[in-house]
Design a protein that fits this description.
Layout: E1 9-13, E2 22-23, H1 25-38, H2 57-67, E3 72-76, H3 82-97, E4 102-106, H4 109-114, E5 118-119, H5 120-124, H6 133-141, H7 144-152, E6 155-159, H8 166-180, E7 190-194, E8 227-231, H9 240-251, H10 256-265, E9 276-279, H11 282-296, E10 300-304, E11 306-309, H12 311-314, E12 325-329, E13 333-336, E14 351-359, E15 371-377, E16 382-384, E17 388-394, E18 397-404, E19 407-409, E20 412-414, H13 415-418, E21 426-429, H14 438-443, E22 452-455
Parallel strand pairs: 3-7, 3-8, 4-5, 4-6, 6-7, 9-20, 9-21, 21-22
Antiparallel strand pairs: 1-2, 1-10, 10-12, 11-18, 13-14, 13-19, 14-15, 15-16, 17-18
């Protein structure tokens, strides 16, 4: 951990002041030297992902199909272990095909970073504009690196499929067949797709003539898979009333009992400061966090991330959850954005409070300016949080990476960013909720009914 103790630039300011800041020169120089050395580094093999629970027979059956080369679509409600399952499948695919021939993607930068992959648009090299299949194919053919990726791929993983449109899914299948010179569906690529179509939908800027919206409406959808599985066992929640209510909201089929539970969770009273607020819009999140920081009146420490890699890949770093600039102070509410030690409850989504800033012992450090946050976690120990490396892969090659403290401010977070997280307590303001699935994503984050607090909710917010 010698480098981690000085791999990040810390800037010290008074709370939200306009004073000139002072940068730790030692931290900056060490960071730059390390980045230079690692520019062409290929990562070492990582340990196989292992969950804290036993695999079910249903999950083992999926593994067996994957090992035999089957293309599989995995769905299921929130909390059914889709992410853990997908990570293990990725390990299997890399053993079967070799790391360099397995490409891990997701529809969003946040989901892609969580899997150490890249966005689907980035892998395909199609850009983000809406266009027909022929136009997108021409764009890919003009990029020799993109053509090489498409030809090299033996397996393609796509997470958060609910945000991929039918038109895009069809276009990518068409591109795969053309580039690979094969009439077999997806050009013979083994496909592993995961997601819940009852959660966040595709963002479609203009109505398509086809009238299709979701990927499962694509003409090639059923032909793309040898096996389609819905996971049914919920691990996140144990209360049968909460599970029933969430399943009803997921499908837009709530009854009087479900609505009563929701009404009991509504409160106009101010909740405990430890409760995380979930908002549909990022502007509300930023406003709440900034106001709470100012109210503390403490001196702040700003951590500037250290980035490197290919220029066109570094852009994805800002699409993920890892902040470029992290401003903290004593008393700040924070959330972990990666798993540090699951057995000690130091996992993605764990919340806590900054108790101080202390130096990390490092015999190479020449001064005491390099301080890191000490955090007392709500369901875990008090711990000094060091910078961690967040990587973006293309196959088995690291194409971009960021060193940053693995925390975000957590008085409030957006519903989009909390997708995939588990929270002990959440206050959700749904008065400005928009889009299908948003209510379900927000409510399904909590472990128990006791941890669910609602405001701005009406039954009309539940949409099918």
């Amino acid at each position: 951990m010698k480098f981690f103790s000085s791999a990040i630039i810390a800037v010290y300011r008074r709370s939200f002041s306009t004073q000139s800041s002072r940068t730790t020169k030692y931290a900056q120089s060490v960071c730059q030297n390390r980045i230079k050395k690692e520019t062409n580094r290929i990562p070492k093999a990582k340990k196989t992902h292992q969950p804290l629970f036993e695999w079910t027979q249903e999950q083992k059956n999926i593994f067996s199909h994957v090992q035999r080369g089957a293309s599989v679509f995995i769905t299921g409600s929130a909390g059914t272990g889709k992410t853990d399952l997908l990570k293990h499948i990725i390990d299997i695919l890399k053993d079967v095909h070799g790391k360099s021939k397995v490409f891990v993607t997701a529809s969003t930068g946040i989901a892609a970073c969580a899997l150490q992959g890249q966005t689907l648009h980035s892998f395909a090299s199609i850009g983000i504009q809406n266009a027909d299949s022929g136009t997108l194919l021409d764009k890919v053919k003009m990029n020799k690196h993109a053509c090489k990726r498409w030809k090299k791929a033996k397996a393609l993983v796509i997470d958060e499929i609910s945000m991929i449109s039918a038109d895009l899914f069809e276009s990518l299948e068409y591109i795969a067949r053309d580039i690979r010179g094969s009439e077999v569906v997806w050009g013979g690529i083994q496909l592993l797709v995961c997601g819940d179509f009852f959660q966040l939908p595709p963002v479609i800027k203009q109505q398509k003539l086809s009238g299709k919206e979701f990927a499962f409406e694509a003409d090639c959808w059923n032909a793309s898979f040898d096996l389609q599985v819905e996971l049914t066992q919920v691990f996140r929640q144990s209360d049968p009333r909460l599970i029933k209510m969430l399943q009803g909201i997921r499908k837009g089929e709530t009854d009087a009992e479900d609505l009563q539970l929701l009404e009991e969770s509504c409160s106009m009273n101010k909740q405990d400061s430890l409760v995380v607020w979930l908002y549909p819009r990022i502007n509300d999140v930023e406003k709440v966090n900034e106001e709470r920081m100012k109210s503390l009146g403490e001196s702040t420490v700003t951590y500037a991330a250290a980035d490197s890699g290919l220029e066109h890949r570094k852009k994805q770093l800002n699409q993920g959850i890892v902040p470029d600039q992290l401003v903290l102070c004593v008393g700040a509410r924070v959330m972990l954005i990666m798993n540090l030690n699951i057995e000690r409850n130091l996992c993605n989504g764990a919340t806590g409070t900054v108790t101080g800033f202390v130096p990390l012992e490092d015999k190479n450090a020449r001064n005491s300016d390099i301080l890191f946050p000490q955090v007392k976690f709500d369901r875990g120990p008090e711990l000094l949080i060091e910078p961690q490396k967040f990587e973006i892969f293309e196959g088995d090659i690291v194409v971009a990476w960021r060193y940053q403290i693995p925390l975000i401010l957590a008085w409030a977070i957006s519903i989009h960013k909390c997708q995939g997280m588990t929270l002990d307590h959440a206050q959700t303001d749904l008065s400005r909720a928009f889009g299908y699935g948003m209510v379900y994503v927000a409510l399904s984050r909590v472990r128990s009914l006791e941890g669910l607090h609602l405001s701005g909710f009406t039954p009309s917010k539940i949409k099918l």
